Amino acid sequence: MLDKELIQLEYERIMRHAAGGSNHEALASMLASWQAGRGMMPDCLGLTQPDFAALIDFHFPRLSLDSLNQPGRQADHNRTDEYHDVLKLLQDNRAQSCHSEKAMAMIVSQACQGQDHLWQDMGLWSRGQLSAMMLRNFPTLAQRNTQNMKWKKFIYKQLCNAEGIYTCRSPSCEVCVDYDACFGPED
User: Which sequence spans correspond to the domains of the chain?
Assistant: First the structure.
């Protein structure tokens, strides 16, 4: 069986336990990918064990934690300041209507430390899935991404702008020689 088929089967198994809610599909995608070793997320998706257990219990109350194989990866503690800066940005822009948006902020902050596109590092299946999750959980931040900049670049640009650090050499993105690196396709 192909890797994608196994991930799809795991997604379906997890979704059979879904209680519903705004983040259950994205979380099921992340968990299914995580089971197959995809993405860069550490054990417990970067959450503490109690926070992870609470997240799973809320979204998938009949799913046994024992049925989820931890990938055996640890969080990168060398980038703690960076993690906290991203976390603060996300928490300042939370929707405050979803039960799990605090946990989602921690997961996104952890995934920002990966080397691939944010959606890939999180174990999501597409950039569109990430965009919908960002809009649902962090609407004021997501709505500022009016030019559809790649999410990780956008988040870090927001941090730089907040600090008054303008590293871009061009007066606008449209005339920048690195335009494709920030706005190109992500597949």
Answer: 3-183
